[in-house]
Amino acid sequence: MFGLLFFILFAPGVSEFICTSSDLEMSYTFCDSTAHSFMFNLTPCSTRNKPVWKAALTWIPRSDIHFLKIVFNVWYDGAKALLWKELLCSGADDEYSLCGTLKGETLESAFDIKGSRLEFPKGNYSIVVQGFSDDSENNMLICLNVTMIVK
Q: Which is nearest to 72 in space by CA: 28, 14, 131, 17?
């Protein structure tokens, strides 16, 4: 199994190659204007016969995380394929360990991504992942532009 590991502490806009296997290639850029301290690990680096991907995240956020809304925009071969929004932290009775992380603290979290049980058609995927500290989606904490090529 291939792992995917990246650590970032540089200017945004620089494209980084993060994963390759016989059936998958992934790269990313930050789509906001600030450098980040960020690490993400995903195993396996494959879309074949993998019901669950294992992910680990380490991140030092630029502001407190009392409220966190994640927005995924997915395009497949240039056509919009998915818009998914998930409220992870609301400030009250939150179930995720990242909720309540303060600015400058190191956030570490491990989780499963079960969407990998889907059969991804071959082609080019553009995935924009945005994290907001408000429900109106005005205060962005982080933004990643991920390119995924399924061979």
A: 131
pLDDT in tens, 118-133: 678 899 999 999 999 9
Contact 54, 109 (CB under 8 A): no
Torsion of the alpha carbons at 113, 116, 122 and 127, rounded to the nearest 10 = -20
Task: List, for residues 30-41, the tens digit of each pLDDT value.
Answer: 887 677 788 777
Q: What gap in Å lies between CA 108 and CA 59, rounded to an integer?
A: 7
| Structure tokens that stand for 91 in this block | 């400030």
Place of tokens 């990998």: 116
Place of tokens 């109106």: 136
Residue 3: its pLDDT value, please? 36
CA atoms of 31 and 56, how far apart (whole Å): 21
Sheet containing 53-59: order of strands: 4-8, 38-43, 53-59, 107-113
